[in-house]
């Protein structure tokens, strides 16, 4: 029974038409310019988190409120509204 539980051996190269040996006709690599390392990002100031605000009254809203508005684009036309201003836009209008 243990002999039946060995993994199957497949010739994947033959299945996908890959030759066993690489071709000898590969050209030598050209002179590749060396890339200069990027300057360290530690000198840059940390970015401020994005402020989400109501499109009508400019009151700051939470990420959950913004996600709700973005998930209901038909109702809010892709804009973010605070809880009080959301009442102006009834569902289906």
User: How is the biggest beta sheet arranged?
Assistant: none
Total number of helices: 4
For the CA atoms, what is the radius of gyration?
30 Å
Strand content: under 5%
Helix content: 10-25%
Low-confidence stretches: none
What is the arithmetic mean of pLDDT? 77
Given helix and strand content, the structural type is: mainly alpha
Distance between the termini: 67 Å
List its salient traits.
single chain, 93 residues, mainly alpha
How would you describe the overall organization of this protein?
With 93 residues, the chain is an all-alpha fold. The protein has a domain at 47-93. The chain is built from four helices and no strands.
Short précis:
With 93 residues, the protein is an all-alpha fold.
Secondary structure blueprint with pairings:
Elements: H1 12-15, H2 63-71, H3 73-76, H4 83-86
């Amino acid at each position: 029974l243990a002999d039946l539980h060995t993994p199957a051996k497949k010739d994947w190269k033959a299945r996908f038409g890959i030759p066993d040996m690489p071709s000898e006709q590969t050209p030598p690599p050209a002179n590749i310019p060396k890339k200069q390392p990027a300057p360290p990002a530690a000198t840059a100031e940390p970015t401020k988190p994005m402020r989400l605000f109501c499109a009508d009254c400019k009151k700051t809203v939470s990420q959950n409120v913004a996600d709700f508005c973005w998930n209901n684009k038909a109702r809010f036309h892709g804009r973010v509204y605070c809880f009080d201003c959301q009442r102006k836009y009834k569902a289906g209008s």
